[in-house]
Amino acid sequence: GQNIDQPTEMTATEGAIVQINCTYQTSGFNGLFWYQQHAGEAPTFLSYNVLDGLEEKGRFSSFLSRSKGYSYLLLKELQMKDSASYLCAVRDTGGFKTIFGAGTRLFVKA
Amino acid sequence: GAGVSQSPSNKVTEKGKDVELRCDPISGHTALYWYRQSLGQGLEFLIYFQGNSAPDKSGLPSDRFSAERTGGSVSTLTIQRTQQEDSAVYLCASRPTDRGPSGELFFGEGSRLTVL
Fold first, then answer.
1. pLDDT in tens, A66-106
2. Are B45 and A100 in contact (CB < 8 Å)?
3. Fewer beta carbons within 10 Å, N or C terminal of chain B?
4. Does the CB of B43 have a partner CB in chain A at under 8 Å?
5. Which stretches does DSSP call E strand in A1-110?
């Protein structure tokens, strides 16, 4: 079956670093995505991993371990505007169907 | 267009009525997806189109749900005899090609459906 797990909520302080974990069990794997979704808005793409290791993009980094079925999104120098839901998504082997986790709501406090 | 466009943005209907939701993908994007997001939940995959065909309809919750895509562009999601549990935000997304090494999804703002 398909299962993607993430924590429901996290709280962090402005300026700090936060790590959002994602574990997955899927029938196939052809890439893992992280999306950001502000309340009432559409999800927007943050990062993509298909090989093991760390991908860095500015304040955001994403890590993947395919053998462990594990990924994390690292947000540095947190800003108030980073308060949003972060969705972990896995694309299957066929290359088209993308399954999403329930998302992690991040609250950034001053 | 500049982005994925969905209409209506909000729809309130009575139980038992039929509704149609429309998605206009980014010009040139061949792959189109429909997802459903209930309050506080993640995205539930409904259906995927490659051009005008739908290789995977496995996510449609029941036979009351159907979708079509014409001309490789606009798609319509139809829900017949709506039920209260159909209340959700219906998100459409498109992608330049149906497969490839990366290719993130570009989402529309969604259609919020409320069934009374």
1. 999 999 999 999 999 999 999 999 988 765 788 899 999 99
2. yes
3. N
4. yes
5. 3-5, 9-13, 18-25, 32-37, 44-49, 53-57, 60-65, 70-75, 84-91, 98-100, 104-109
As to burial, measured by CB atoms within 10 angstroms (0-12 exposed, 13-18 middle, 19+ buried), residue B107 is buried
Contacts of residue A81, defined as CB under 8 A and 6 or more positions apart, other chains included, come to none
Which tokens sit at A100? 């999403």
Q: What percent of chain A has pLDDT over 90?
A: 80
Contact state of B35 with A100 under an 8 Å Cβ cutoff: yes
Cα distances (Å, whole numbers) of residue B28 to A106, B52, B54, B86: 34, 13, 17, 31
Task: Dihedral sign for Cα A109, A103, B35, B105, please.
Answer: positive
Contacts of B113 (CB under 8 A, 6+ apart): B11, B13, B19, B21, B79, B82, B86, B87, B88, B89, B90
Nearest to B90 by CA among B65, B56, B54, B53: B65
Q: Which helix (H) or strand (E) holds B107?
A: strand B106-107
**List of long-range contacts for A79-82, beta carbons under 8 Å, 24+ apart:** A79/A14, A79/A108, A80/A14, A80/A108, A80/A110, A82/A106, A82/A108
Q: How far apart are alpha carbons A89 and B5 in whole angstroms?
A: 22
| Closest CA of chain A from B9, distance in Å | 11
